[in-house]
Design a protein that fits this description.
By secondary structure, the chain is mainly alpha-helical. Helix 4 packs parallel to helix 8, helix 6 runs parallel beside helix 13 and helix 13 packs antiparallel against helix 14. The longest helix has 29 residues. The radius of gyration is 19 Å and the shape is globular.
């Protein structure tokens, strides 16, 4: 697949998910004591399933194009809905936020490596330079402009979860644009395409949540606050973000799209600052410039 030009509409589509995922990270920390990771993931996608059902119910019919392609959608849903999200919530419960975000900054590199190894996509020098600039911006946010903060970071076993999540998301993004035999009627209908992933993703999410409860780690404390946050997570970080990400990847390709993920820690820092009543600092602006610079450099022909 040739690399597409990054248009303003593509920038919007690929910037919206990091904003929503940043909200997800902040809210995920708020409700960490109310719901365990796998259970939170399952409930989130059950709600998304119900919300999307009026638009995409036909895709569940026995005659729909989903079932001849069920193996592909089982793989897509494992990498994203079942795997990535579950690993992300698990990582937030087993590692520090700075570690999780720092390891997650490897996503653009995973995009490049997986594209090269599994999809025969060449890696240019501009893309490597863009990856370096983008990751530098993330590290600047995490360190708050102080090198000593980064030097004090120590990786723990829980960081392996977010590493796996980053690799899974990269492979998922490449699968979105890799040529398949699925009919265009399913692929071009965003609600049907997403419903196909969610419906099979609930199988994976249910298995993981069941194992969580069987092992004695399950936790769910109902409240109006939890219900409201879950509703927002189901609509924003789930439905809207997945819709925008799929459309954005289709326009630019996974190699370029991967750089936009590194906007997530920047938005997370800003949102956390707003909740805490802090004002943005100079290093936030410098980090934004580095991340955007990485996007621009990597997307040039």
């Amino acid at each position: 697949m040739s690399q597409a030009r990054v248009t303003p509409s593509a920038v919007f589509l690929l910037t919206l998910p990091p904003v929503l995922w940043a909200c997800n990270a902040v809210l995920g920390r708020v409700i960490a004591d109310m719901a365990s990771p796998m259970t939170l993931n399952l409930v989130r996608w059950c709600m998304a399933f119900v919300l999307l059902l009026p638009l995409a119910a036909p895709v569940l019919h026995r005659s729909s194009a989903l079932w001849p392609n069920w193996r592909r959608f089982m793989a897509l849903s494992l990498l994203s809905i079942g795997g990535y999200n579950a690993l992300l919530y698990l990582a937030l419960n087993t590692s520090t936020p700075i570690n999780v975000t720092l390891v997650g900054a490897s996503t653009p590199v995973w995009m490049l490596l997986i594209g090269r190894l599994f999809f025969a996509k060449a890696i240019s020098r501009r893309q490597w330079l863009g990856a370096a600039l983008s990751i530098s911006g993330v590290m600047l946010v995490l360190s708050r402009g102080q090198l000593d903060t980064l030097l004090q970071v120590r990786l723990v076993p829980g960081d392996f979860y977010i590493l796996l999540a980053s690799a899974a998301w990269a492979y998922y993004s490449w699968m979105l644009v890799h040529p398949t035999s699925e009919p265009s009627s399913l692929r071009t209908n965003w609600s049907a395409f997403l419903m196909a992933q969610i419906s099979l993703g609930l199988i994976w999410s249910g298995l993981f949540a069941g194992a969580e409860w069987a092992l004695g780690f399950g936790r769910f404390v109902p409240s109006w606050q939890l219900a409201g946050i879950l509703l927002f997570i189901a609509i924003g970080p789930a439905l809207l973000a997945y819709r925008a990400w799929g459309a954005g990847v289709a326009r630019t390709g996974p190699s370029v799209a991967g750089f936009f993920i590194n906007l997530t820690p920047l938005f997370t820092a800003v949102l956390s600052g707003l909740f805490l009543g802090e004002v943005p600092h100079l290093y936030h602006g410098l980090a934004f410039a580095l991340i955007v610079g990485g996007i621009v450099v990597s997307s040039r022909r």
